[in-house]
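WARN no homologs supplied; continuing
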Amino acid sequence: MLTERTSELARLSESLADCERGRGRVVLIGGALATGKTALLDALGDLVGERATLLRAVGSRAERELRLGVVAQLLVGAEPVVRDRVARLAESPLDPRSLEEVGALLLESGGERPVVLAVDDVHFADPESQQALLYLRRRIASARVLLVLTEWERPNLARESSHAELARQPDHRIDLGPLTAAGVAEMLGVEDVCATTAFDISGGNPFLIKALLEDGRVVGPHFRRAVLDCLTRRDADFFAVAEGVAVLGDSASPALVGELLAMTARSVRPVLDALNAAGLLRDHRLRHPDVLLESLAPADAARLHARAAELLHRRGAPAVEIARHLTAAGAVPGSWAMRPLRFAAEQSLVDDPELAVGCLELALNASEDDGERVELRAALVRAAWRINPAIAARHLGSLADRRDLCWRDAVPVARLRLWQGDPGAAGELLRGTRAHDGEPHPRAAAELRIAAEWIHGRSLDVEPLTSGDASWQTTAGLVRSWTRESPGEVLRAAEHVLQSCAGEVLPEAASAAVLALDHAGHVERSRHWCDALTAQARRQGATTARALIGAVRADMSWRRGDLIAAEAHAREALRLLHPQTWGVLVGLPLATLILVNSALGRHDTAAELLTRPVPDEMAATTFGIRHLHATGRHHLTSGRTLAALDAFERIAARMRSGDPAIPTTIPWRGDLAQTYLLLGRRREARELVAEQLAGSSGGVRIRAITLRVLASCSEPRQRVAALREAIQLLERCGDRLELARALADLSQAHSELGQLRNARLVLRKADQMAKACQADVLSHRLRDALDAARPEPAPTPAGTPLLSEAERKVAELAARGQTNREIGRRLYITVSTVEQHLTRVYRKLNVRKRTELPAELSRLHDDTDGQIPTPVRGFAPVRSDEQR
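OK structure emitted
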């Protein structure tokens, strides 16, 4: 059943019934493009069935010169003698006698049954066939004949004379239009919301809805092809007008489309009305202009866009509108185009940097003035950096060596030099600019200084960036305030930067401000600004800023122990900007990824990340320190202690070099001390811990991590106090991963003091915290420790194994001479868990040292009575330094 065509089918059925009663009828079906006229004729065939003889034909523009071609189609099933007669009649002009003969042939084709003649697209029928049908129409009033014709609706255009006479005053006129939203829902069999979307896409055009259904209710290849088919089936000017509307977009009007295509507005307007009636247009705007634009040959598209730009320029259209056509054309058709290109680049720099880059590249290629080319190249660096620093670097050119730039042009060049890891060149450029252009703008100078110190410490000479504005000069010291651990100063300076972030701002300065807030304990403010900056970057299409804020989010998530979020943000940052595009700043997201994968036990992934190439210049930056720290952590967690020692000692040398502008945000002393402990250098570890705790740098999180390392250097009773303080600090700063580690250490300390109930309670909390971080490796080790920390079971009955499976594995490896640390790595458990298992084994087997284990284990395998040896009185637990 046709959708929303019930009344139309009823009219056809009524006309067929009249035909059967000997009252001939003419039905004319009209409507817009592809609104279902042919489908209605198909339904007519179902109505006719065996009640009458149905003869069908289709008019075609290509066959209009074929005399009596439509009549021949109607009689295609007749006897050969009839078809031959039609062919002979077509050889000469038709006179009244010939027309009478053709009419008789058509009427007789039905034999004793009524005849239904259905002609689709009658406006394309050849003139001779139209004359024959018109002759027949005048004589069917009392005949059993039904004549059903379809024509395209084309308002305000006169029909040809024979067509007009044929279509005049039919017995029934059926006008088809697009479906309603309810009809679309019925046709697609979907809910209202989906139907509304489909209606908006198709305009209710049944032909397009069918194509949409073939594409799975999305705009796909079938739908795109259907749009083009709708336009190419009509007159040639239909497609041309649609192309003109697509090119002009919101500027399209009958007059402008006509001028673009060298047509009159009077001839364009009816085509627009017809396209609108078919649902292809909405308020004289194409629903899918991209389909038309993609179908244009490149040369035609360039020609139309260049012509559109010129027409809009004459009419005083906005520069951005003109520039879009110029960039689409890829050419500057005249000197008049330079001004709108430059104006558009300036206006779209913030909200549409891609358009700004396109405008400036086009203007640069067309410019022949050296001074203008310098200005354009500097503007290009400024605009291109927002979407891709690599593009900005390609346009740096001769700007890198100039000393006569204004501050507006010099700042983006200096910033690019910072990204490339060349603070010396940036400083030289800034000194030359100050000498040439005077004092910088206070805000720009402050933001650039913050960015420079965040990336390079004090490697950049900031003297040229001083200004007379005391407020901005104070703000410019943000990184120094951060390193001095001054939360109040950090808050004031960071908020000053961030509240100025509307418009063109340095995302490096904004990122540094967010991280400074976070490290200073203003967590909610840092999260608020992260959200605000991300939303602004998305809105403005600023890919570089979006990637940078993503890397900051990853770092913040890592320090909260949210490993999965940290990994997602870091990977998204590296997806938005290719690693090579990041320059020296690649160390920020890459270091986070390495730390996360090391913590998750994905050592192969972390090792692969370490093999990725990074700029040599990164080593001298603050992000080089971050990357080196992540390298050390990976070596430490994967058992390469000496490699970790090398990485951490290199960090120590850099941090002790005395650069006051490097934020102390990584726990390098704690990591180095932990490495010393693993190598048995306890005195050096304690000295490092004392050095960290004596100072005030690093913040709450680093102090907590340092206290945990201090506990490892201390006796059990002293260890408990240090760990409790560390846990309180970690709960304050919210680092769940470090909190899980500290709780695990506290549980071990309670266990060594014989406080087994406390040990189990704390260990259970540590396990929950590790699961919350999704740190599976740590969680598995903690669960093993939980098993080991359970109370001793009652003596096992006969036939039950003396040693548990975990105890047996540990005992066998210990009997082979492996150290506690080697056993832990082999079984993926902590050293303390190994010690607890061995304590139980020694007690059950009644032995005091490892050398007795082989014999006892051999005896145990041969012993089948399951008797438990009597424990040795005064037995002491296994210490962590045994058999190291």
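The two ends are 85 Å apart (CA to CA).
OK
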